[in-house]
């Protein structure tokens, strides 16, 4: 068995630290299966701890929250011109994002058909290159938004491409301010203004505006320095399936990446990279140094040791061989260990298979 364990007290402490640092409303981002903590369980935890607005990235996530009885406001972060998605979001009472003329026209048309007024946030593309109105299109967008029926603008936002790049982030922030001002001059109340996700929230407190969107910060797993002392949330818990005794010189795992240097006892575990073991942010690294580090670590894994460990009866034991999809081996030669013993593995929750049960303790 495998279980992703969430320390509820540590998560609550992270939320408290973030609240003390925030001068704006906190929107709890629960996209991607709640960053791996389980969409509905995580959303329920946040609302029970006073969070009144959540953010998702798909219509399915919004529907799942409502089906689970989550009553908090739900913001759909992605702009969509798909009528079926818009209908689902309106039925959920979600706040939609409009980032294109096509999306605005679709939202208005579906809202008219349903006899409701769609609540929307306008997204401005200030450099991310995905959803949002381009700077040169904001004036045209404002005219369209004013002309469409059954739609009420309640917010405006953007998304920073790389909060670690200060010059880029400040350019994007300035571009956002100019775009929001254009909307206001066109007679559109911009409402809730928000630009900061977790990394920008920590690096640029002056950019908090009316709200901040926090996801990875709540888990204490950040790509920028952490001045708040946030705790890392989530670990994988599993049990020893079998014990395996190997002679010296025996190869372990795919490609024979590890060769035993002495008679060795291995604990075989039902966990691998589909459970998040060994999967890190470097696989999608933004910075050159992170990409280089990933290549070096991959080479080390193939030649000697992958550097991964598991905690068995209070002691760190190294992983031997390449981590498989669903299995791995720990070297427990020097550790008292029996079949059925509990093993703790460090993982990033968002990379853990959604089929793995989540348990809040």
- Percent helix, as a range, is 25-40%
Question: How far is the first residue's CA from the last residue's CA?
Answer: 17 Å
Q: How many E-type strands?
A: 19
Rg, Cα atoms, Å: 24 Å
Class computed from helices, strands and strand pairing: alpha/beta
Question: What about the largest sheet?
Answer: 9 strands, mixed
Give the helix tally: 10
Spans of at least 5 consecutive residues with low confidence: none
Order of helices and strands: EHEHHEHEHEHEHEHEHEEEEEEHEEEEE
**General shape:** elongated
Average pLDDT, rounded to a whole number, is: 94
- Oligomer category: single chain
Would you write up a description of this structure?
With 361 residues, this protein is α/β, with parallel strands linked by helices. 31% of the residues lie in helices and 25% in strands. It contains ten helices and 19 strands. Strands 11-14-17-16-15-18-10-1-19 form a nine-stranded mixed beta sheet. It has an eight-stranded parallel beta barrel with strand order 2-3-4-5-6-7-8-9, surrounded by five helices. Strands 12-13 form a two-stranded antiparallel ribbon. β7, α8 and β8 form a beta-alpha-beta unit. α4 packs parallel to α5 (83-91) and α5 (83-91) crosses α6.
